Amino acid sequence: MVRVGVHVSIAKSIDKAVDRAIEKGCDTFQIFTRNPRGWKIKELTAIDAKRFTEKVEHSGIFPPVDHMPYLPNLAAPTDDVYKRSVASLIEELRRSDALHIPYLVTHLGSHRGYGKAGGFQRIVDAINTAFSEVDNGVMLLLENTAGTKNSMGGTFEDIRHIMNRIEHKERIGICFDTCHGFVAGYDLRTEESLKATMQHFDEVIGLEHLKLIHLNDAKAGLNSRLDRHEHIGLGYIGEDGFRVILKEEHFKELPMILETPVDNRRGDSGNIQKVRELAG
User: Fold this and answer.
1) Which residues of the chain fall short of a pLDDT of 70?
2) In the annotation, is 203 catalytic?
3) Among this protein's residues, is 236 annotated catalytic?
4) What is the pLDDT of residue 141?
5) Quick check: is 107 catalytic?
6) What pLDDT is stored for residue 1 in this prediction?
7) What domains lie within the chain, and their CATH numbers?
């Protein structure tokens, strides 16, 4: 049995996310704890947190996952954006803890043309600063990117490079996004190519660090560097590709979050159903 869920909205109040996850038939779910498109943060009250944690407990859905908002860029070359980004990371680590959420997913950002070396330094400093500021049990999951221009973390080697320089390595894990990995050049569609990719991951990063899967199909081809998610089975990875992915021993044990489109072809529940069907 795979553990699969989707990203759900926190509109009206944060505990409503749990109701939405139940409604869609989730085994796990992901949220933004705040408006992901602004810098302003609505305070999380003790009552908000209590309602959320109690609902999660009663639902039996686990784990809930927090995702960093869109605006922070941990590799930002400009100081104003960078300082705000570090502050956001600190805040999200605290909020995840208050909500008893074990995982916080972060993108590694873009160096904006400033160069990879500078980007690495920024990310490492940001995470080390946040960890020295906040000491809790929340694990920060670094997400692989699609390898688009100036983005950080498109290769396993880049992620390893960051991990090596984190002071509290035990507080870091990996979220592997199938769409990002595929368009960045890691083939996942056949048993053979997936095995080679996983072996490479294990040699460079270590499979023990893999904690979460973002399960997404891709609207563009292998190594296209185009970050566009597609419904499960309807993109370039395809149904056969996902059958292979969902049987992979390291993947099927992990919680899987879908960040697939919602349109007239299919909604969230339809994609969850499709995953369960392909997992057999």
Assistant:
1) none
2) no
3) no
4) 98
5) yes
6) 87
7) 3-279 (3.20.20.150)
Amino acid 150: pLDDT: 96
Which pLDDT value is given to residue 208? 98
Contact 67, 107 (CB under 8 A): no
Indicate whether this model's pTM tops 0.90: yes
Quick check: is 82 catalytic?
Answer: no
Question: Of the listed 57, 70, 168, 265, which one is catalytic?
Answer: 70
Contact 256, 229 (CB under 8 A): no
177, 217, 230, 268: the catalytic one is: 177
